[in-house]
Amino acid sequence: MSVTGSRRRDQIVHLATTTGLASVEELSRTFEVTASTIRRDLARLHSEGRLARTYGGAMALTAHPEASLRQRTGEAFDAKRAIARWAAARIVPGESVFLDAGTTVGALAHELRGHKPLTVTTSGLTALQELGDVDTLEVQCLGGTLRPLSQSFIGPLAEAALEQMTFDRAFLGTDGVTAEHGLCEADHRQTRLKQLVARRSQRVYVLAHAAKLDRRPFHAWTRLAPPWTLVTDTGADPDTVKALRGQGITVTLVGLGQGDGGPG
């Protein structure tokens, strides 16, 4: 792809904002120029405030500034509510359940306000605020470092607390999910915590509306070992669903207005 320097830099920015992940080597192959040329492009784009440098001196692209939890609350509201209702219907009275941070898992917490007796452990302030006054639930919160954008607790103290717990079911959120890389987050401490929770849970569900599928906005990843279930809505791309199932992942498609059904 032979283009002028200015045009190439514009296209690099476009790639960053649409795919969310591009290495120097990938860009070098795409534009048929040397890695040194790409590094100079990225340095210029960084100096202009159009892209960012990350990770130990290597040049990488940050596709999207991370939205706050409040900003994400109104996104895909109907899909999140349907997914949350489906998830709530899986839970059996007396179980020990882990709720991640995030707006879709927060919607699940809201559904549990009228639920049977449960032990609920959470890493998120949203779930804690939803369930803190519910007498039928025993609510536990992980300690750790509060991450303001996601309103979640992360870090060594949260990880140490998990070493003393196990769960019947864990419900995780994510900023993106792909068949190739797994779950995507903005911070490696987030993916580390999800990985630890999954290892200590009998059943693992990832709750993500269709717009998050095949999306990779950041550079922190974790690949969960099957079996686990991705719960998304019927707007999901069929090819993406097929690719995920090809990795041994169970994919459940929930229609808007759905969400009932028995435990499973």
From TrEMBL:
The keyword Chaperone does not apply. Pfam families: DeoRC, HTH_DeoR. GO terms for molecular function: DNA-binding transcription factor activity. Keywords: Transcription, Transcription regulation. The keyword Transcription regulation applies. InterPro entries: Carb_Metab_HTH_regulators (IPR050313), DeoR-like_C (IPR014036), DeoR_HTH (IPR001034), NagB/RpiA_transferase-like (IPR037171), WH_DNA-bd_sf (IPR036390). Residues 5-60 form the HTH deoR-type domain. PANTHER family: AGA OPERON TRANSCRIPTIONAL REPRESSOR-RELATED, HTH-TYPE TRANSCRIPTIONAL REGULATOR SRLR-RELATED. This is DeoR family transcriptional regulator.
